[in-house]
Specification:
about 200 residues, alpha+beta, Spore Coat Polysaccharide Biosynthesis Protein SpsA, Chain A, four-stranded mixed beta sheet, three-stranded antiparallel beta sheet, galactosylgalactosylxylosylprotein 3-beta-glucuronosyltransferase activity, golgi apparatus, Galactosylgalactosylxylosylprotein 3-beta-glucuronosyltransferase, Nucleotide-diphossugar_trans, transmembrane
Length: about 200
């Protein structure tokens, strides 16, 4: 765990548990799924914390990421998740947005720029799960073995729900409230190598 993150969450004033799980070196290769161990550590922590508490236990799980940008409205939308809710994600899959296609309040397909044949053609930022669903499916995890890059969302959601059960949010999946803006390598070409600033600034 880092002091930088610890200070950040302390300053946010929100109750928080700061977990840290390293990714094994053998999985740090291009083309392999990322953040698998970290998401599974979060799932294990939730289950351990709540396994002996009486139901119902309200709560919604969302896998936020450091390279996404969020409208606060998204978090209001997901509050009413009964099982698994879904919505569009902007700037993903080589398109301006991807989204579940909704007819009569039900998801019937996917507007996507990549692998439309996926069971759940959705980005990690495009769904939330009720805590009750997580607790009632104790073996549902993100898989390393047998999971292809870009398929972790589908592989996980297949363990806990069906397309027919999905709950469309964001005005029947017509409103983008989260964007995959990415974390790019910064350009520091003009950063001096010598005669650095005399003040230490945290960036």
């Amino acid at each position: 765990r880092s002091e930088l993150v610890s200070r950040f969450v302390a300053g946010a004033g929100l109750p928080c548990t700061h977990l840290h799980v390293p990714t094994p070196r053998r999985y740090k290769r291009p083309g392999l799924p990322r953040a698998t161990e970290q998401r599974n550590a979060g799932l294990a922590w939730l289950r351990q914390r709540h396994q002996h508490l009486p139901p119902p236990q309200p709560g919604v799980l969302f896998f936020a990421d450091d390279d996404n940008t969020y409208s606060l409205e998204l978090f209001q939308e997901m509050r009413t998740t009964r099982k698994v809710s879904v919505w569009p994600v902007g700037l993903v899959g080589g398109r301006r947005y991807e989204r579940p296609v909704v007819e009569n309040g039900k998801v019937v397909g996917w507007y996507t720029g990549w692998r439309a044949d996926r069971p759940f053609a959705i980005d990690m930022a495009g769904f939330a799960v009720s805590l009750q669903v997580i607790l009632s499916h104790p073996k549902a995890v993100f898989k390393r073995r047998g999971s292809q890059p870009g398929m972790q969302e589908s592989d996980f959601l297949k363990q806990i729900t069906t397309v027919e059960e999905l709950e469309p949010k964001a005005n029947n999946c017509t409103k983008v409230l989260v964007w995959h803006t990415r974390t790019e390598k910064v350009n520091l070409a003009n950063e001096p190598k010598y005669h650095l600033d005399t003040v230490s600034i945290e960036v």
